[in-house]
Amino acid sequence: MRFTLPQVLTPAELATLQQTLGAADFVDGKLTAGWHAKAVKQNQQLAAKTPTAQSLKTLVRQALNRHPLFQAAVRPRHIHSLLFSRYCEGMAYGRHTDNALMGGSNHWRSDVSFTLFLNAPEDYSGGELVMEGADEEQAYKLAAGAAIVYPSTTLHRVEPVTAGTRLVAVGWVQSLVRSPAQREILFDLETVQRSLYAQQGKTDEFDLLSKSLANLLRSWAE
Ligand code: NI
How far is the CA of 24 from the centre of ligand 1 (A)? Predict the structure, then answer.
């Protein structure tokens, strides 16, 4: 399931990220790409291990973890990897699939990927994130503070930036539920559960649905 999250960040959090990243040093993005993604990755990223990077990562993790739609649709076990990327004029990231395993010897699985946009679409030309399907493509260029969340199994690319600078946070999540189809079933059932409760309160039907939802999650969570 692919979906957009409006307003992941508060205006104050967005300002903190923009100001801090505006004054920070960036390094070549090829440092964190797999061997074949390296060939098509042309961007810059914030050096990952600095105290600045750690505090910005904490800020983004907290923002996502408090977001109800992110919780219901992704069921994160751990947001294990986060990068702050900058694309200046002429930079792009050609078609690739994100690495299946990340975090070195920790072997975190990437089930879900996200891109959180950190500056306004008017600040740059080009730079769309394009999801490639079997016979259609979908391009995303969202407002500052909004995110696109998608299965890590997807082929995707970032179109060349032709003017200005594109600033994003990109991240990867290991979900409690590995299968996208199972995550979607849980999300749909939870949506119905909440709607039933809002309309009719704690009925017999609500209790049975809640039991099924809990037992499916118990079977599928790992
Ligand atoms: Ni990617």
Answer: 23
Partner residues linked to 46 by β-bridges: 26
> How is residue 162 written in tokens?
């032709």
How much is the pTM? 0.93
- In whole angstroms, what is the distance from residue 83 CA to residue 86 CA? 10
| 3-175 topology per CATH | Jelly Rolls (2.60.120)
State the distance from the centre of ligand 1 to the C-alpha of 117, rounded, in angstroms.
Answer: 14
Distance CA 206, CA 158 (A): 44
Domain-wise residue ranges, the chain: 3-175, 180-220
Residues in the chain: 222
User: CB of 165 within 8 A of CB of 88?
Assistant: yes
Tell me what pLDDT residue 37 has.
Answer: 80
Distance 52 CA to ligand 1 centre (A): 23
Q: How far is the CA of 14 from the centre of ligand 1 (A)?
A: 22
CA of 195 to the centre of ligand 1 (A): 35
Strand 44-46 to 26-28 pairing: antiparallel
Say how many Å lie between the CA of residue 97 and the centre of ligand 1.
6
Q: Which residues contact 35 (CB under 8 A, 6 or more apart)?
A: none
Q: What is the pLDDT of residues 130-144, one digit of tens each?
A: 999 989 999 999 999
User: 211 near 189, Cβ under 8 Å?
Assistant: no
Distance between CA atoms of 126 and 92, rounded to whole angstroms? 9
